[in-house]
Amino acid sequence: MAKENTTRFALLGLLTFGPASGYELKTLCDRTISHFWNENYGHIYPVLKELAKEELVTADNETKVGRPPKTVYSITDKGMDELRAWLAKPIVHTPPRVELLLKIVFSGNVPRSKVLALLEDEIKNAQETITKFEGLEDHLKNHIDDKNHGHKNAKLWLASVDYGKRFNRMHLGWCEDQLRSLRKSENRK
Amino acid sequence: MAKENTTRFALLGLLTFGPASGYELKTLCDRTISHFWNENYGHIYPVLKELAKEELVTADNETKVGRPPKTVYSITDKGMDELRAWLAKPIVHTPPRVELLLKIVFSGNVPRSKVLALLEDEIKNAQETITKFEGLEDHLKNHIDDKNHGHKNAKLWLASVDYGKRFNRMHLGWCEDQLRSLRKSENRK
DNA sequence: GTATCCATGTAACCAGTTACATGATTGC
DNA sequence: GCAATCATGTAACTGGTTACATGGATAC
Hints:
By secondary structure, chain A is mainly alpha-helical. In chain A, 63% of the residues lie in helices and 6% in strands. Chain A has 2 domains: 7-88, Arc Repressor Mutant, subunit A (Orthogonal Bundle); 99-188. Chain A is elongated, with a radius of gyration of 22 Å.
């Protein structure tokens, strides 16, 4: 069984917030779920066409004065059914691929200083990501009642940011412990 | 810039433990790093040929009586250089794709019961994985001095299992909290 | 004789990324 | 006149998965 095209469901999901063009879906994706999901034009446009062909979405051409024309997609009942079926299905876990662990497991082949540098880089990254996520969190909490930003799903969105924070804290903690243990064995030599 | 072929380095890394055939590399991979890395034959064999062509590994045909013939690959100096260069390079983080969060963020479209079931399934999975990892850990700790199992890298290997445990505990904790918060809001209704 | 392991490979396929190309409109 | 934003798309490519095909050797 081939791997499922998750992009289809990401787009269907975004369309539940309202009709949008390919371009708008991309910016929506970037602004709302980019901390855990990413799409690019080269995939969005073909998949939208595919979805339209299968009647999971409808495509309407819109021309407004003073604006480039665009194709606006809306999710259909059939599309909603597909989306709901996917949402209810348990997640099929594919074997993970953690590049950091690959580098660590083979790190006996490089000088310790390189390994320390790698871990320090990871730590810096994780700290920056956590800070970014905390900013995101604050921003959302302050605008949670702001009707203009209209996210009924603010709670779920916050939960996704929380996941990101937890993940990065876990990652950070492991790297720090690893770094400590590495430095300790260095001193013993 | 195209995405890097990490399989190359996984294979080069495994070959630092000693020469091996494609088949042996697959079983080695399954037995030692499958908790965070996976490879399949359909990728291993072509990549090995590619590596041989680039002289990062050498290929030797071996025929033993009472055994099917096999091609044994060994890492070359050039291969070691490539591997070391990769090991020392910081990790380029590609945008993550967390399917669970996608489902949660769009979960407003399905009955709460389905979301609860999804979370419960994730929790069960995470618990099972943690148990599996603890078994792995115990096994390794008991054989750490056993020369026959010959893993000089037992410490690094343990660290990778520890990462897996931490990740799954984090995942588990988030799911449990999410479940609790979902049930609470259910009662309020 | 049959199931399992050892052993190698290819073909078809799919998901996803990057680079490239185009052009209208708006604000400075 | 130019940069930025809005808007759509394709072509080339790569990494990776799955299914299929083959066949020798071994242990029961």
